[in-house]
Amino acid sequence: MNTNTVKITPLFQKVGIDIIEFPQQDKATKLKKDGTPKNIVCNKKKGKKSEVYAIEIPDIKKLIDFFYQNEMWQHYLIFVLSCNMARRIGDTLTLTWEHFFNPTTGAMRNDLLEIVEDKTDKLANPHINSACKKAILLYIEKTGINPAENNYKNYVFVQTSGNYKGRVITDDGYRKGLKKAAVQVGIEYNIGTHSPRKTFGMISRMLHPNDYDSMELLQTIYNHSDTKTTNHYIGLTKKKIDTYYDDMGSFFDDYVTGDKTYMEVAEQPVVSIDTNSLRDIIKVAYKAGAENADNTDPVIHIDAINKIIGMIEGVAK
Question: What phi and psi values does residue 25 have, to the nearest 5 degrees?
Fold first, then answer.
């Protein structure tokens, strides 16, 4: 029996009730699908903000160049994979060569062999794009590793020297190298192992500004529960918050300490609509415009407008 007990307050003794003792329950250990315990470690330092940010484009090149020039090939490949596949560092470090190559043909795969994410237990097999393929081939060339050894079952990222030679490198080992590189190239904002993963989302939004599905697609890529989480994760929420601060500063400069006169503008109604509903409304409006282009009856046009307004009111949040 567990000797750890919880005692009911001695006040009960005053009314003739014996003290009752209950066995103290051990905290449940979270397990992976294979039954082994999850290694959950909190590395947050008291009094310090732990959030890390996506890496700005000029700084991405600085880091890549630093890893290349210093022949930090493991860091080079991990960084490229993280930026282009948006995987967590723990999942990346568990990859074997079989995840990249088909053992039967020896050819590089187009999609990563399916993995189970350690944090979410969800399946993922991201596309291996051209940047990843080039980095993998460079890594093989520079290190002299033969991916086909042990029928492609060897881990990709292992210690090459020291007491732990042959073991998979640790999250902390990669993090320290990344932090050191950030200092060396002059990055002043906080970055960490999640930063390349966040960078994927930030740049994807920049590359696809007119894609109404972009946030939903990024939510799927990250396996997030909602787009609000994704917005915060890739830094869009912070950018909007920073805009509020900057706008307040401009207002203060112009109208408080400056000599401009502020003319208040009446608030205009704002309707919030999700992208799928907006797409449906646009389709209806386009179809009505095409069908009624030559119609001179104003009632027809008014009915079409009322129908669209009704759709907006029906889905407005």
Answer: -80, 135
Q: Which residue has the tokens 């560092």?
A: 89
The predicted model scores a pTM of: 0.63
The string of pLDDT tens digits covering residues 266-275 is 555 666 777 7
Residue 40's Cβ-side half-sphere holds a number of Cα atoms within 13 Å equal to 11
152 to 100, 110, 195, 196, 237: CA distances (angstroms): 9, 16, 29, 26, 42
Task: Tell me the C-alpha distance between 282 and 276, whole Å.
Answer: 10
Q: Report how far apart, in Å, the C-alpha atoms of 32 and of each of 25, 90, 163, 178, 238 are.
A: 21, 13, 28, 28, 33
Residue 222 has pLDDT above 90, yes or no: no
Pull the structure tokens for residue 251: 């207002």
- Report whether 273 contacts 317 (CB < 8 A): yes
pLDDT, mean of residues 160-165: 80
> Is residue 47 predicted with pLDDT exceeding 70?
no
Give the three-class secondary structure for 92. helix
